[in-house]
Amino acid sequence: MENQFDIAIIGAGSGGYIAAIRAGQLGLKVACIEANPYADPNGDPRPGGTCLNVGCIPSKALLASSEEYEKIVHHVAAHGISVNGVSMDVEKMVERKAGIVTKMTKGIEFLFRKNKVTFIKAHARFSAKTDAGFRIEVRGKRFDDVINAKNVIIATGSKARHLPGIPVDNVTICDNAGALDFTEVPKRLGVIGAGVIGLELGSVWRRLGADVTVLEAMADFLPGCDAAVSKELFKILGNQGLKFELGAKIGEVTTGNNSVQVTYTDREGQQRAFQCDKLVVAIGRVPNTENLNLGAIGLKVNARGFIDVDAHCKTALPNVYAIGDVVRGPMLAHKAEDEGVMVAEIIAGQAGHVNYGAIPSIIYTSPEVAWVGKTEQELKMEGVSYKAGQFPFTANGRALGNGDVQGFVKVLADTKTDRVLGVHIVSTYASEMIGEAVMAMEFVASSEDIGRISHAHPTLYEAIREAALAVDNRALNM
After folding, report:
1. Structural contact between residues 193 and 245, judged by C-beta atoms closer than 8 angstroms
2. Percent above pLDDT 90 for the chain
3. 10 Å Cβ neighbour count for 101?
4. Where is the FAD/NAD(P)-binding domain (predicted)?
5. 390-405 CB burial, b ≥16 within 10 A, e <16
6. 377-425 pLDDT per residue, tens
7. What is the mean pLDDT of the chain?
8. How far apart are CA 172 and CA 281, in angstroms?
9. Domains of the chain: residue spans and CATH
10. C-alpha distances in angstroms, 466 versus 35, 404, 408, 455?
11. Which of 338, 355, 415, 448 has the most beta carbons within 10 angstroms of its beta carbon?
């Protein structure tokens, strides 16, 4: 194996593999190193990181399957469709999910070959800083070598945060990985954490028949979302059957014969307990920055385990960059991808850039939630004078035709300049509609700009135009 590279990228997740491909496109000699435990049939680590292997992609596959099932059981009758004897083969659903993951990981390896990226399936750790760059040890099933690189990108991602004293075996007590591989629908499912992961996984198994209880330490539901969005989604998910205990302080968790008992203190200070067949711990994620031997090159992590970087993902050490979940900002795959492209272009001598103010966020429940920019709470806290326009899907013809009128679009704009400051969507297809709002903010559009753009009729995204017009009390269909 050749051992001299322009760039060594540690981690082949969303940020790392995209950085490697872009650097290869730019003519740089690239090594991308991955040691995750998500093995292919040969027992070798696979590219794609958490997102592709046990995160974004497999969870969306299960969400799609469970949504199809719920539509048939509960919603198609309104369209005049009668169906009897519906059943769910959970093992086949999980097998389908696994097939999608395998196809996509193989696709990444093809792109590595296409762009002349050397993919090293091994664990990487820094050995030394040299005059020519950095020496990195790579140790794995098929590799036991040392490589040298002029530049290094640390893209090692994150792992699930676990509660102290509550062992995760991914059989009875699971994190996000274990919750994707149930072999049957649990009768009772407990979820600790009402964040994105907890809500999505809870939704999958609730649709298939599980009785789901979600415990959340925060007293408010989704406090990072716009307050109107949080209120709407809480109401809808509750009506669907998800049970919530907000302000819950977890006490003892004990396992019995195929069951788990969780004791907690509720927001009124009362001691409570409930039993479930499976428990999912979804309380956030922590950066993977240990075992890199960062001290060998004089690099440190901060108190929370993250690597400090500037606006262009440069660390305190020249020619060492860090991207994705190991640095500040939201732990989002597309944010990591954007940073990977930016850093590859900077190393190649170009002017890479990421607009952190225009990175969208999505929760893939049903309905979905998507937003970009500021919330009303943030604008009030910052003392920004703004105006708001909101439009419900109950007044949208396409939504009525689809038989799904849940949610709304809200547009926030600056009072003086009319510049769009934030857009928030609650809708079954929010993830597909938020792109227009991101584009508008990236090009500094005003709410009037959105309102004057022709929107095809009948479509769901007409609601974005109507909400933009509503900013100045000009909505046409409300």
Report:
1. no
2. 96
3. 19
4. 5-340
5. bbbbebbebbeeeebb
6. 999 999 999 999 999 999 999 999 999 999 999 999 999 999 999 999 9
7. 96
8. 11
9. 4-159+286-354 (3.50.50.60), 173-283 (3.50.50.60), 358-470 (3.30.390.30)
10. 49, 18, 10, 10
11. 338
pLDDT at 206: 98
Structure tokens at 41: 């049939």
Q: Which amino acid is at 267?
A: R
For residue 149, give both structure tokens.
């690189």
Which residues, at least 6 apart from 293, have a Cβ–Cβ distance to it below 8 Å? 125, 126, 127
Q: 360: which residues sit within 8 A by CB, 6+ positions away? A: 334, 370, 371, 372, 434, 435, 437, 438
The confidence band for 2, taking pLDDT boundaries of 50, 70 and 90, is low
Is the pLDDT at 113 greater than 80? The verdict is yes
Asked whether residue 449 carries a pLDDT value surpassing 70, the answer given is yes
Active site includes 75?
no
Q: Which of 213, 23, 189, 209 is nearest to 116 (CA)?
A: 23
Mean pLDDT of 266-287: 96
Average the pLDDT over 213-235 and give the result. 98
State in Å, rounded, how far the first CA of the chain is from the last one. Answer: 66
DSSP track, 377-403: HHHHHHT--EEEEEEEGGG-HHHHHHT
- Per the CB < 8 A criterion, the answer to whether 147 and 29 are in contact is no
Q: Distance between CA 145 and CA 136 in Å, rounded? A: 9
pTM for the model stands at 0.96
Q: Under 8 Å CB-to-CB from 477, ≥6 apart: which residues? A: 391, 395, 396, 466
pLDDT at 81 over 70: yes
d(Cα 229, Cα 467) in Å, to the nearest integer?
14
**Alpha helix (H) residue ranges in 133-260:** 196-207, 227-240
Alpha carbon distance 377, 218 (integer Å): 17
CA distance 333 to 157: 10
Instruction: Check residue 1 and give its pLDDT.
Output: 63
Structure tokens at 328: 């500040």
Distance in angstroms (rounded) separating the CA atoms of residues 386 and 474? 16
What's the token pair of residue 62?
Answer: 């299960």
Question: What's the pLDDT score for residue 42?
Answer: 82
Determine which one of 74, 334, 353, 457 is catalytic.
457
Helices (H) and strands (E) in the chain, counts: 12, 22
Which are the contacts of 162, defined by CB distance < 8 A and separation ≥ 6? 168, 175, 281, 283
